[in-house]
Design a protein that fits this description.
One of its GO terms (cellular component) is cytosol. GO terms for molecular function: 3'-5' DNA helicase activity; ATP binding; DNA binding; hydrolase activity. Keywords: ATP-binding, Helicase, Hydrolase, Nucleotide-binding. By secondary structure, the chain is an alpha/beta fold. The chain has three domains: about 210 residues, 3-Layer(aba) Sandwich (Rossmann fold), CATH 3.40.50.300; about 80 residues; about 80 residues, no CATH class. The protein is about 50% helix and about 10% strand. It is built from 15 helices and twelve strands. The termini are far apart.
Protein backbone atom coordinates (compact mmCIF):
# COMPACT_ATOMS: atom_id res chain seq x y z
CA UNK A 1 0.00 0.00 0.00
CA UNK A 2 1.13 3.56 -0.66
CA UNK A 3 1.06 6.31 1.91
CA UNK A 4 -1.70 8.91 2.23
CA UNK A 5 -1.91 11.20 -0.76
CA UNK A 6 -1.36 14.95 -0.39
CA UNK A 7 -0.43 15.86 -3.96
CA UNK A 8 -2.82 17.13 -6.61
CA UNK A 9 -4.90 14.40 -8.29
CA UNK A 10 -3.67 12.80 -11.48
CA UNK A 11 -5.83 12.17 -14.53
CA UNK A 12 -7.72 8.90 -14.28
CA UNK A 13 -7.02 6.26 -16.91
CA UNK A 14 -10.17 4.11 -17.06
CA UNK A 15 -8.39 1.52 -19.19
CA UNK A 16 -5.68 0.85 -16.59
CA UNK A 17 -6.09 -1.96 -14.05
CA UNK A 18 -8.17 -1.01 -11.04
CA UNK A 19 -5.69 -0.17 -8.23
CA UNK A 20 -5.55 -1.96 -4.91
CA UNK A 21 -6.36 -0.11 -1.71
CA UNK A 22 -8.46 3.03 -1.44
CA UNK A 23 -8.93 5.25 -4.49
CA UNK A 24 -10.54 8.68 -4.54
CA UNK A 25 -12.00 9.60 -7.92
CA UNK A 26 -12.92 13.28 -8.15
CA UNK A 27 -15.62 13.79 -10.76
CA UNK A 28 -16.85 17.27 -11.59
CA UNK A 29 -20.31 17.73 -13.08
CA UNK A 30 -20.56 16.43 -16.64
CA UNK A 31 -17.41 14.28 -16.57
CA UNK A 32 -19.17 10.93 -16.97
CA UNK A 33 -19.15 9.81 -13.35
CA UNK A 34 -22.02 7.29 -13.58
CA UNK A 35 -20.62 5.90 -16.83
CA UNK A 36 -17.21 5.46 -15.18
CA UNK A 37 -18.69 3.64 -12.16
CA UNK A 38 -20.69 1.25 -14.36
CA UNK A 39 -17.70 0.62 -16.62
CA UNK A 40 -15.29 0.06 -13.72
CA UNK A 41 -17.70 -2.38 -12.09
CA UNK A 42 -18.11 -4.23 -15.38
CA UNK A 43 -14.36 -4.35 -15.93
CA UNK A 44 -13.77 -5.73 -12.44
CA UNK A 45 -16.38 -8.44 -13.04
CA UNK A 46 -14.99 -9.33 -16.47
CA UNK A 47 -11.40 -9.62 -15.17
CA UNK A 48 -12.43 -11.79 -12.23
CA UNK A 49 -11.54 -9.25 -9.53
CA UNK A 50 -14.97 -9.84 -8.00
CA UNK A 51 -18.29 -11.54 -8.61
CA UNK A 52 -21.66 -9.81 -8.70
CA UNK A 53 -22.59 -10.97 -5.18
CA UNK A 54 -19.29 -9.64 -3.76
CA UNK A 55 -19.64 -6.19 -5.34
CA UNK A 56 -21.22 -3.28 -3.44
CA UNK A 57 -22.20 0.02 -5.05
CA UNK A 58 -23.52 2.76 -2.76
CA UNK A 59 -25.08 6.09 -3.68
CA UNK A 60 -27.00 8.83 -1.92
CA UNK A 61 -30.62 8.79 -3.08
CA UNK A 62 -33.01 6.03 -4.11
CA UNK A 63 -33.53 7.58 -7.57
CA UNK A 64 -29.76 7.57 -8.10
CA UNK A 65 -29.66 3.92 -7.01
CA UNK A 66 -32.23 2.98 -9.66
CA UNK A 67 -30.28 4.84 -12.34
CA UNK A 68 -26.99 3.25 -11.30
CA UNK A 69 -28.54 -0.22 -11.27
CA UNK A 70 -29.91 0.35 -14.77
CA UNK A 71 -26.61 1.70 -16.08
CA UNK A 72 -24.60 -1.21 -14.66
CA UNK A 73 -26.99 -3.74 -16.21
CA UNK A 74 -26.84 -1.95 -19.58
CA UNK A 75 -23.06 -1.85 -19.45
CA UNK A 76 -22.85 -5.55 -18.67
CA UNK A 77 -25.07 -6.38 -21.65
CA UNK A 78 -23.18 -4.04 -24.01
CA UNK A 79 -19.82 -5.44 -22.89
CA UNK A 80 -20.97 -9.02 -23.29
CA UNK A 81 -22.21 -8.31 -26.82
CA UNK A 82 -18.95 -6.56 -27.75
CA UNK A 83 -16.88 -9.46 -26.40
CA UNK A 84 -18.91 -11.97 -28.41
CA UNK A 85 -18.33 -9.92 -31.57
CA UNK A 86 -14.62 -9.73 -30.79
CA UNK A 87 -14.38 -13.49 -30.22
CA UNK A 88 -16.22 -14.18 -33.48
CA UNK A 89 -13.90 -11.82 -35.34
CA UNK A 90 -16.82 -9.71 -36.52
CA UNK A 91 -15.46 -6.39 -37.78
CA UNK A 92 -18.81 -4.75 -38.38
CA UNK A 93 -19.22 -3.68 -34.75
CA UNK A 94 -16.33 -1.65 -33.34
CA UNK A 95 -16.23 -1.00 -29.55
CA UNK A 96 -17.99 2.26 -28.73
CA UNK A 97 -15.36 3.52 -26.25
CA UNK A 98 -11.78 2.94 -25.13
CA UNK A 99 -12.79 0.89 -22.08
CA UNK A 100 -14.73 -1.54 -24.26
CA UNK A 101 -11.85 -1.69 -26.72
CA UNK A 102 -9.47 -2.62 -23.89
CA UNK A 103 -11.91 -5.24 -22.65
CA UNK A 104 -12.21 -6.76 -26.13
CA UNK A 105 -8.45 -7.04 -26.62
CA UNK A 106 -6.91 -10.43 -25.93
CA UNK A 107 -6.49 -13.98 -27.10
CA UNK A 108 -9.59 -16.20 -27.53
CA UNK A 109 -9.11 -17.99 -24.17
CA UNK A 110 -9.02 -14.62 -22.40
CA UNK A 111 -12.13 -13.40 -24.24
CA UNK A 112 -14.00 -16.63 -23.45
CA UNK A 113 -13.17 -16.28 -19.77
CA UNK A 114 -14.46 -12.68 -19.74
CA UNK A 115 -17.61 -13.72 -21.55
CA UNK A 116 -18.26 -16.48 -19.04
CA UNK A 117 -17.81 -14.12 -16.10
CA UNK A 118 -20.16 -11.51 -17.54
CA UNK A 119 -22.77 -14.14 -18.41
CA UNK A 120 -22.60 -15.27 -14.79
CA UNK A 121 -22.90 -11.68 -13.55
CA UNK A 122 -25.98 -11.02 -15.67
CA UNK A 123 -27.54 -14.30 -14.61
CA UNK A 124 -26.99 -13.45 -10.93
CA UNK A 125 -27.70 -9.72 -11.25
CA UNK A 126 -30.46 -9.93 -8.65
CA UNK A 127 -27.75 -10.67 -6.06
CA UNK A 128 -25.98 -7.36 -6.70
CA UNK A 129 -25.82 -4.92 -3.78
CA UNK A 130 -26.59 -1.49 -5.27
CA UNK A 131 -28.07 0.53 -2.45
CA UNK A 132 -28.57 3.91 -0.81
CA UNK A 133 -26.42 4.80 2.18
CA UNK A 134 -29.08 3.69 4.67
CA UNK A 135 -29.87 0.51 2.73
CA UNK A 136 -26.13 -0.16 2.69
CA UNK A 137 -26.02 0.12 6.49
CA UNK A 138 -29.02 -2.20 6.74
CA UNK A 139 -27.17 -4.78 4.63
CA UNK A 140 -24.09 -4.42 6.84
CA UNK A 141 -26.17 -5.05 9.95
CA UNK A 142 -27.45 -8.26 8.35
CA UNK A 143 -23.89 -9.29 7.47
CA UNK A 144 -22.64 -8.69 11.02
CA UNK A 145 -25.16 -11.12 12.51
CA UNK A 146 -24.47 -11.68 16.22
CA UNK A 147 -21.68 -9.07 16.23
CA UNK A 148 -24.24 -6.27 16.42
CA UNK A 149 -27.24 -5.52 18.61
CA UNK A 150 -30.18 -6.77 16.55
CA UNK A 151 -33.16 -4.87 17.87
CA UNK A 152 -35.55 -5.25 14.95
CA UNK A 153 -37.98 -2.56 16.05
CA UNK A 154 -38.74 0.26 13.64
CA UNK A 155 -40.66 3.47 14.00
CA UNK A 156 -42.26 5.89 11.59
CA UNK A 157 -40.74 9.30 11.13
CA UNK A 158 -43.85 10.77 12.78
CA UNK A 159 -43.31 8.62 15.90
CA UNK A 160 -39.66 9.62 16.05
CA UNK A 161 -40.55 13.30 15.63
CA UNK A 162 -43.01 13.10 18.53
CA UNK A 163 -40.34 11.43 20.67
CA UNK A 164 -37.82 14.14 19.77
CA UNK A 165 -40.20 16.90 20.88
CA UNK A 166 -41.02 15.07 24.10
CA UNK A 167 -37.36 14.59 24.98
CA UNK A 168 -36.48 18.23 24.27
CA UNK A 169 -39.32 19.48 26.47
CA UNK A 170 -38.63 17.01 29.27
CA UNK A 171 -34.91 17.73 29.42
CA UNK A 172 -35.55 21.48 29.43
CA UNK A 173 -37.98 21.10 32.35
CA UNK A 174 -35.52 18.85 34.20
CA UNK A 175 -32.69 21.36 33.88
CA UNK A 176 -34.93 24.15 35.13
CA UNK A 177 -35.67 22.10 38.26
CA UNK A 178 -31.94 21.65 38.90
CA UNK A 179 -31.32 25.37 39.11
CA UNK A 180 -28.67 25.36 36.34
CA UNK A 181 -28.50 27.92 33.55
CA UNK A 182 -31.80 27.73 31.67
CA UNK A 183 -32.49 27.91 27.97
CA UNK A 184 -35.51 29.70 26.57
CA UNK A 185 -38.05 27.33 24.99
CA UNK A 186 -37.29 28.52 21.44
CA UNK A 187 -33.52 28.19 22.00
CA UNK A 188 -34.01 24.73 23.54
CA UNK A 189 -36.00 23.62 20.49
CA UNK A 190 -33.33 24.93 18.09
CA UNK A 191 -30.53 23.20 20.00
CA UNK A 192 -32.53 20.00 20.36
CA UNK A 193 -33.49 19.80 16.69
CA UNK A 194 -29.87 20.38 15.69
CA UNK A 195 -28.27 17.73 17.91
CA UNK A 196 -30.96 15.11 17.25
CA UNK A 197 -31.05 15.86 13.54
CA UNK A 198 -27.28 15.28 13.25
CA UNK A 199 -26.50 12.64 15.83
CA UNK A 200 -23.37 11.53 14.00
CA UNK A 201 -21.66 14.86 14.65
CA UNK A 202 -19.47 15.26 17.73
CA UNK A 203 -20.39 17.92 20.28
CA UNK A 204 -17.58 20.45 20.76
CA UNK A 205 -16.47 21.30 24.28
CA UNK A 206 -17.40 24.94 25.08
CA UNK A 207 -15.03 27.62 26.42
CA UNK A 208 -14.65 27.39 30.22
CA UNK A 209 -15.63 31.03 30.77
CA UNK A 210 -18.94 30.90 28.85
CA UNK A 211 -21.75 29.62 31.12
CA UNK A 212 -24.42 29.90 28.41
CA UNK A 213 -22.35 27.81 25.99
CA UNK A 214 -21.74 25.30 28.80
CA UNK A 215 -25.51 25.12 29.43
CA UNK A 216 -26.17 24.45 25.73
CA UNK A 217 -23.45 21.79 25.64
CA UNK A 218 -24.80 19.94 28.66
CA UNK A 219 -28.38 20.32 27.39
CA UNK A 220 -27.37 18.85 24.01
CA UNK A 221 -25.62 15.89 25.64
CA UNK A 222 -28.57 15.17 27.91
CA UNK A 223 -30.98 15.28 24.97
CA UNK A 224 -28.96 12.76 23.01
CA UNK A 225 -28.65 10.38 25.94
CA UNK A 226 -32.37 10.62 26.79
CA UNK A 227 -33.45 10.18 23.17
CA UNK A 228 -31.28 7.13 22.58
CA UNK A 229 -32.39 5.54 25.86
CA UNK A 230 -36.10 6.09 25.21
CA UNK A 231 -35.92 5.09 21.56
CA UNK A 232 -34.23 1.84 22.53
CA UNK A 233 -36.77 1.06 25.25
CA UNK A 234 -39.65 1.86 22.88
CA UNK A 235 -37.91 -0.05 20.04
CA UNK A 236 -38.14 2.97 17.76
CA UNK A 237 -35.33 3.14 15.21
CA UNK A 238 -34.91 5.39 12.20
CA UNK A 239 -32.42 5.42 9.34
CA UNK A 240 -29.79 7.31 11.33
CA UNK A 241 -29.92 4.63 14.03
CA UNK A 242 -28.85 2.00 11.51
CA UNK A 243 -25.76 4.04 10.70
CA UNK A 244 -24.91 4.52 14.37
CA UNK A 245 -25.41 0.84 15.20
CA UNK A 246 -22.88 -0.13 12.51
CA UNK A 247 -20.45 2.48 13.86
CA UNK A 248 -20.90 1.15 17.40
CA UNK A 249 -20.31 -2.43 16.23
CA UNK A 250 -17.10 -1.48 14.42
CA UNK A 251 -15.81 0.59 17.35
CA UNK A 252 -16.57 -2.04 19.98
CA UNK A 253 -13.40 -2.74 21.98
CA UNK A 254 -14.04 -6.48 22.13
CA UNK A 255 -15.67 -7.41 18.82
CA UNK A 256 -14.96 -4.35 16.62
CA UNK A 257 -11.98 -5.82 14.80
CA UNK A 258 -13.84 -9.05 14.10
CA UNK A 259 -16.82 -7.04 12.79
CA UNK A 260 -14.56 -5.07 10.45
CA UNK A 261 -12.89 -8.23 9.17
CA UNK A 262 -16.27 -9.87 8.61
CA UNK A 263 -17.43 -7.03 6.36
CA UNK A 264 -14.13 -6.75 4.49
CA UNK A 265 -14.15 -10.49 3.75
CA UNK A 266 -17.70 -10.24 2.41
CA UNK A 267 -16.92 -7.74 -0.40
CA UNK A 268 -14.06 -7.62 -2.92
CA UNK A 269 -14.96 -4.18 -4.27
CA UNK A 270 -16.90 -1.33 -2.67
CA UNK A 271 -17.66 1.80 -4.71
CA UNK A 272 -19.34 4.81 -3.11
CA UNK A 273 -20.92 7.52 -5.28
CA UNK A 274 -21.74 11.12 -4.23
CA UNK A 275 -19.28 10.83 -1.37
CA UNK A 276 -19.21 14.60 -0.88
CA UNK A 277 -22.69 14.21 0.67
CA UNK A 278 -21.61 11.71 3.31
CA UNK A 279 -21.10 12.45 7.00
CA UNK A 280 -18.38 11.53 9.53
CA UNK A 281 -20.27 8.46 10.76
CA UNK A 282 -20.53 7.00 7.26
CA UNK A 283 -16.85 7.65 6.58
CA UNK A 284 -16.05 5.92 9.89
CA UNK A 285 -17.86 2.82 8.62
CA UNK A 286 -16.01 2.80 5.32
CA UNK A 287 -12.66 3.51 6.94
CA UNK A 288 -12.98 0.89 9.69
CA UNK A 289 -14.50 -1.85 7.52
CA UNK A 290 -12.90 -1.45 4.08
CA UNK A 291 -9.96 1.02 4.03
CA UNK A 292 -6.76 -1.03 3.49
CA UNK A 293 -8.80 -4.25 3.79
CA UNK A 294 -10.36 -4.49 0.32
CA UNK A 295 -10.68 -2.38 -2.82
CA UNK A 296 -12.55 0.83 -1.97
CA UNK A 297 -13.36 3.45 -4.61
CA UNK A 298 -14.77 6.77 -3.41
CA UNK A 299 -16.35 8.98 -6.08
CA UNK A 300 -17.44 12.55 -5.49
CA UNK A 301 -16.97 16.24 -6.04
CA UNK A 302 -16.48 18.51 -3.00
CA UNK A 303 -17.71 21.47 -5.05
CA UNK A 304 -21.16 19.84 -5.13
CA UNK A 305 -21.52 19.28 -1.39
CA UNK A 306 -25.01 20.70 -0.80
CA UNK A 307 -26.54 18.52 1.91
CA UNK A 308 -25.07 20.13 5.02
CA UNK A 309 -28.62 20.58 6.35
CA UNK A 310 -28.89 16.75 6.47
CA UNK A 311 -25.63 16.33 8.34
CA UNK A 312 -23.38 15.91 5.31
CA UNK A 313 -19.89 17.20 6.00
CA UNK A 314 -17.46 17.85 3.17
CA UNK A 315 -14.65 17.42 5.70
CA UNK A 316 -15.36 13.68 5.64
CA UNK A 317 -14.57 13.73 1.91
CA UNK A 318 -11.38 15.68 2.53
CA UNK A 319 -10.35 13.27 5.30
CA UNK A 320 -10.85 10.35 2.92
CA UNK A 321 -8.80 12.15 0.27
CA UNK A 322 -5.97 12.61 2.72
CA UNK A 323 -5.95 8.93 3.70
CA UNK A 324 -6.43 7.42 0.22
CA UNK A 325 -3.73 5.38 -1.49
CA UNK A 326 -4.32 7.15 -4.79
CA UNK A 327 -6.35 10.09 -6.01
CA UNK A 328 -7.48 10.75 -9.56
CA UNK A 329 -9.79 13.10 -11.42
CA UNK A 330 -12.04 12.62 -14.43
CA UNK A 331 -10.64 15.30 -16.71
CA UNK A 332 -13.05 15.46 -19.67
CA UNK A 333 -16.42 17.24 -19.62
CA UNK A 334 -19.04 15.68 -21.92
CA UNK A 335 -21.79 18.29 -21.44
CA UNK A 336 -20.30 21.74 -21.92
CA UNK A 337 -18.82 23.66 -24.81
CA UNK A 338 -15.16 24.73 -24.51
CA UNK A 339 -16.17 28.34 -23.83
CA UNK A 340 -18.18 27.32 -20.76
CA UNK A 341 -15.42 25.31 -19.09
CA UNK A 342 -12.83 27.97 -19.97
CA UNK A 343 -15.06 30.74 -18.64
CA UNK A 344 -15.70 28.91 -15.37
CA UNK A 345 -11.98 28.23 -15.00
CA UNK A 346 -11.30 31.94 -15.50
CA UNK A 347 -13.95 32.85 -12.95
CA UNK A 348 -13.22 30.27 -10.23
CA UNK A 349 -9.79 28.86 -11.08
CA UNK A 350 -7.91 30.73 -8.35
CA UNK A 351 -10.71 30.72 -5.79
CA UNK A 352 -10.66 28.66 -2.63
CA UNK A 353 -14.16 27.14 -2.45
CA UNK A 354 -14.01 25.56 1.00
CA UNK A 355 -14.01 26.92 4.51
CA UNK A 356 -10.82 27.83 6.35
CA UNK A 357 -8.35 24.96 6.12
CA UNK A 358 -10.31 23.18 3.36
CA UNK A 359 -8.43 23.15 0.07
CA UNK A 360 -11.28 22.82 -2.46
CA UNK A 361 -10.56 24.19 -5.91
CA UNK A 362 -11.88 23.95 -9.43
CA UNK A 363 -10.16 21.10 -11.27
CA UNK A 364 -9.20 21.93 -14.88
CA UNK A 365 -11.03 19.81 -17.45
CA UNK A 366 -11.02 19.47 -21.21
CA UNK A 367 -14.19 19.10 -23.28
CA UNK A 368 -15.31 16.45 -25.70
CA UNK A 369 -17.08 19.15 -27.70
CA UNK A 370 -14.60 20.90 -30.01
CA UNK A 371 -16.63 23.94 -31.10
CA UNK A 372 -19.37 26.19 -29.63
CA UNK A 373 -22.87 24.86 -30.33
CA UNK A 374 -24.49 28.28 -29.96
CA UNK A 375 -23.92 31.08 -32.44
CA UNK A 376 -25.55 34.48 -32.88
CA UNK A 377 -26.07 35.43 -36.48
CA UNK A 378 -23.05 35.42 -38.77
CA UNK A 379 -20.91 37.77 -36.71
CA UNK A 380 -17.30 36.74 -36.28
CA UNK A 381 -16.84 37.84 -32.69
CA UNK A 382 -19.29 35.69 -30.74
CA UNK A 383 -20.10 36.80 -27.16
CA UNK A 384 -18.35 34.89 -24.38
CA UNK A 385 -20.10 31.75 -23.16
CA UNK A 386 -19.78 32.83 -19.52
CA UNK A 387 -20.72 36.41 -18.67
CA UNK A 388 -21.03 38.46 -15.49
CA UNK A 389 -23.69 41.09 -16.07
CA UNK A 390 -24.10 44.01 -13.71
CA UNK A 391 -26.49 46.96 -13.61
CA UNK A 392 -24.75 50.26 -12.88
CA UNK A 393 -27.43 52.95 -12.46
CA UNK A 394 -26.68 56.57 -11.80
CA UNK A 395 -28.28 56.25 -8.41
CA UNK A 396 -28.58 53.47 -5.83
CA UNK A 397 -31.56 51.18 -6.47
CA UNK A 398 -33.70 49.64 -3.79
CA UNK A 399 -34.24 45.89 -3.79
CA UNK A 400 -37.44 45.70 -5.84
CA UNK A 401 -36.39 48.17 -8.57
CA UNK A 402 -33.09 46.27 -8.82
CA UNK A 403 -34.93 42.97 -9.27
CA UNK A 404 -37.13 44.58 -11.92
CA UNK A 405 -34.04 45.84 -13.75
CA UNK A 406 -32.43 42.37 -13.66
CA UNK A 407 -35.64 40.76 -14.97
CA UNK A 408 -35.83 43.31 -17.78
CA UNK A 409 -32.22 42.62 -18.74
CA UNK A 410 -32.87 38.87 -18.81
CA UNK A 411 -35.98 39.28 -20.92
CA UNK A 412 -34.10 41.51 -23.37
CA UNK A 413 -31.27 38.95 -23.59
CA UNK A 414 -33.77 36.14 -24.23
CA UNK A 415 -35.46 38.11 -26.97
CA UNK A 416 -32.14 38.81 -28.68
CA UNK A 417 -31.13 35.15 -28.52
CA UNK A 418 -34.48 33.84 -29.77
CA UNK A 419 -34.42 36.31 -32.65
CA UNK A 420 -30.85 35.73 -33.80
CA UNK A 421 -29.23 32.67 -32.23
CA UNK A 422 -28.82 29.18 -33.69
CA UNK A 423 -28.11 25.90 -31.91
CA UNK A 424 -26.14 22.96 -33.32
CA UNK A 425 -28.17 19.86 -32.45
CA UNK A 426 -28.41 16.39 -34.01
CA UNK A 427 -25.81 17.24 -36.64
CA UNK A 428 -27.32 20.47 -37.98
CA UNK A 429 -27.88 24.13 -37.13
CA UNK A 430 -31.41 25.24 -36.22
CA UNK A 431 -33.08 28.23 -34.63
CA UNK A 432 -32.83 28.50 -30.85
CA UNK A 433 -36.09 27.60 -29.09
CA UNK A 434 -37.45 28.69 -25.69
CA UNK A 435 -37.21 25.04 -24.54
CA UNK A 436 -33.43 25.21 -25.10
CA UNK A 437 -33.05 27.88 -22.41
CA UNK A 438 -33.09 27.75 -18.62
CA UNK A 439 -32.79 30.23 -15.76
CA UNK A 440 -31.53 29.17 -12.34
CA UNK A 441 -32.73 31.28 -9.43
CA UNK A 442 -32.46 31.02 -5.69
CA UNK A 443 -36.15 31.43 -4.88
CA UNK A 444 -39.29 30.32 -6.68
CA UNK A 445 -40.77 33.81 -6.44
CA UNK A 446 -37.84 35.18 -8.44
CA UNK A 447 -38.43 32.64 -11.18
CA UNK A 448 -42.13 33.45 -11.28
CA UNK A 449 -41.30 37.15 -11.57
CA UNK A 450 -38.95 36.53 -14.50
CA UNK A 451 -41.55 34.30 -16.16
CA UNK A 452 -44.23 36.98 -15.78
CA UNK A 453 -41.90 39.58 -17.27
CA UNK A 454 -41.26 37.30 -20.25
CA UNK A 455 -44.99 36.73 -20.77
CA UNK A 456 -45.67 40.48 -20.86
CA UNK A 457 -43.26 41.05 -23.74
Amino acid sequence: MTSAVTRAPGCFDPCAPLPDGTTVLEASAGTGKTFAIAALATGALAEGLTTIDRLMLVTFARSATLELRTRVHERLRASLEALRHALAGSGDSEPSDDMLATLCAGDPPVLRARIGRLEQALGDFGRATIATTHEFCGRLLDELGMLVDHDTGRGSEQQLAVLRHQVIDDVRLATSMQGTAQLAPDVARIVGDAVLGHRGLRLLEPPPDDPLARARFEFAGAIRRQFEDRARRLRLHGFDDMVQRVVDALNDRVTGERAASTLAERFDLVMVDEFQDTDPAQWTILRRAFHHRTRLVIVGDPKQSIYGFRGADVQAYLDATGQADQRFTLDCNYRCDPGVTEGLAELFGAAGLGSAGQDIRLTPVSTQQSFPRLRIGSQRGQPPAVQLRAISPQRLLRAQPARDAISADLVHTFDQLLARAELFAQGRWRALRPSDMAVLVRRRHTGEQIGSSQMRV
